[in-house]
């Protein structure tokens, strides 16, 4: 299967590297407007045809699928052209700039009977998949909260704010783990460097089962932190993605109020063992790309399909409304 990777800046070379690991898959084209990026990829992968002309990729009938890792503002146009040219498409998050654009791409993919997949890489990580299995087994009991800190110094984007850049990771993880949409959302943000786009933000989401989610994201942190805490009535979990090993720790801890005590000032705390589950060290991106290829070959709907991408876009649009109105947005 011949693949083309469009966009060879920050993320594109990772796509090329991982596609090249899949038996029976060949990255035939690398496409980018930067000669520097093209030369770098050509040096590492000499067999790839490097081009600045996207039309050249579209017109090659031997190319079955295109992976797009370009700036968000270009996603809609490039994905639309690729689908209309009869190519399967993997597009990096966010899928589009608006939900209207996302719906149009979903419609075209359905009409052309092509796979449209969105690159929510964390959904394919072994750690998140392990958490999903534990939740399905009711290991944590009733879920109370999801608390994420996703902060770093940069990379400041030209065509999006920090919410559109970083929040899709957690919004896609939440959608995968919880399998339901939030009933309300509120966003708080601040601008310092550019004075226009939000660079530091906090999101607060509410769910029907009284679970809440808090997401702290920033481009202006002196340290890189990628931590998720999930609290339940039985157990709690800490997922530290920066940790090279032992990324996941399950704490046998909880707190409850004795039924014979009216006052909430006498809670019962229970502290048990700490479990460090074994997690396979397979790269999440490789799993994602293998899934993409499998969906093409088997005519399957991807786990992170166009509808998944649309769900995230709608939540991102709600954060824009919340920032402007400075209020909680009730979601239908």
List keywords for this structure.
33% helix; Dihydrodipicolinate Reductase, domain 2; globular; Rossmann fold; 2 domains; 15 strands; 30% strand; six-stranded parallel β-sheet; alpha/beta; 9 helices; 332 residues; nine-stranded mixed β-sheet
Protein described:
The protein has 332 residues and is α/β, with parallel strands linked by helices. The chain has nine helices and 15 strands. A nine-stranded mixed β-sheet has the order 14-13-12-11-7-10-9-8-15. Strands 3-2-1-4-5-6 form a six-stranded parallel β-sheet, with helices on both faces. Helix 4 packs parallel to helix 5 and helix 7 packs across helix 9. The longest helix is centred in the C-terminal third of the chain and has 20 residues. It starts with a strand and ends with a strand. The model has no long low-confidence stretch (mean pLDDT 93).
